[in-house]
């Protein structure tokens, strides 16, 4: 998915929070077009840039595709990050410039590593009537951000506990471990809680995020309404999640504090303003939107006939880094 905001450097402030838990409200961002599908963005925000290495979170649906037109994102670039797609309903066709083509459906992880540069397109399938899911980005650390491109698809098993069912698509939790190698320690899981259920998230030293998809939960005693994101800084003690009377579905994610500053603009993650300028220029020249260009393309293009998405105009000021919290 592409960040299609006209001014992608701008973020919003946090919502109301309880002791020890920060609650962040979503904001609506249209993906573009007259019948635009709208996503609810909770990360990044001015109050919070990273949760572990996670730096971006869009939550969408359930959308009636006959009304919204579904997802139709033409070829666009990424660098310095990995994308994570996780669906609750519907299907998306993925094509990338490393030659990967995949159909993404509910209950299956789609992990695309951009490394030094990749481009891809994403479209809901013709058979999809309702589209519902999340897309998340992970910032790559210094020693991996110019590495190889990659794509992984994984269907985690459903694990059951007292009052809940979970699918762990990254990391280890709830008695299961995903066999996926990542550049930093990560946790990612869908958890479905029965009415009134309580579950412990035991991740010592991890910053933790909880996105509420359906229902309501309390996170460490703080109420989280549907669509909101809760954040807790890294601690040693377990986090208690409790569902309301109708049950809930949440996405639990996190990791150790990232410990590096990043500059994130549009679909790029770099380390300073000048890198972002160079990434944008490389993409614009590759797609013919600007003259010139490097001898060796950074991104390449997927096997997709649609015109590539040009980059927005850079802001008139230098983009400032966002700091991850330092590890102890």
TrEMBL record:
* UniProt biased composition (Basic residues): 319-328
Keywords carried by this UniProt record? Iron, Metal-binding
Matching SUPFAM superfamilies: RmlC-like cupins
Ranges of Pro residues composition bias in the record: 304-315
Which ranges carry the Pirin N-terminal domain?
Answer: 38-138
* Similarity remark: Belongs to the pirin family.
Instruction: Tell me what this protein is called.
Output: Pirin family protein
Give the species: Ruania alkalisoli
């Amino acid at each position: 998915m592409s960040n299609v905001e006209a001014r992608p450097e701008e973020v919003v402030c946090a919502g109301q929070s309880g002791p020890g838990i920060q609650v962040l409200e979503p904001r609506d961002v249209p993906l573009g077009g007259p019948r635009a599908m709208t996503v609810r963005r909770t990360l990044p925000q001015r109050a919070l840039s990273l949760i572990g290495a996670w730096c971006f979170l869009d939550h969408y649906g359930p959308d009636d595709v006959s009304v919204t037109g579904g997802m139709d994102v033409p070829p666009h670039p990424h660098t310095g990050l990995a994308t994570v797609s996780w669906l609750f309903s519907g299907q998306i066709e993925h094509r990338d410039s490393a030659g990967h083509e995949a159909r993404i459906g509910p209950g299956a992880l789609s992990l695309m590593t951009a490394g030094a540069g990749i481009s891809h397109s994403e479209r809901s399938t013709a058979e999809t009537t309702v589209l519902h899911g999340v897309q998340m980005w992970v910032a790559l650390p210094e020693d991996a951000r110019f590495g190889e491109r990659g794509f992984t698809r994984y269907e985690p098993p459903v694990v059951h506990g007292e009052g809940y069912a979970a699918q762990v698509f990254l990391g280890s939790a709830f008695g299961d471990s995903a066999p996926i190698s990542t550049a930093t320690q990560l946790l990612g899981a869908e958890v479905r809680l029965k009415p009134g259920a309580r579950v412990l998230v035991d991740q010592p030293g991890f910053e933790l995020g909880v996105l509420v998809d359906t229902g309501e939960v309390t996170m460490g005693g703080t109420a989280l309404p549907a669509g909101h994101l809760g954040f807790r800084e890294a601690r040693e003690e377990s986090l208690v999640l409790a569902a309301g009377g109708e049950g809930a579905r949440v996405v639990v994610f996190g990791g150790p504090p990232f410990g590096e500053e990043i500059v994130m603009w549009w679909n790029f993650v770099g380390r300073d303003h000048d890198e972002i300028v160079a990434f944008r220029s490389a993409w614009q020249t590759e797609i013919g939107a600007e003259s010139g260009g490097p001898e060796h393309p950074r991104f390449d293009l997927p096997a997709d006939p649609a015109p590539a998405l040009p980059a927005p105009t850079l802001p008139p000021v230098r983009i400032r880094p966002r700091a991850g919290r330092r590890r102890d």
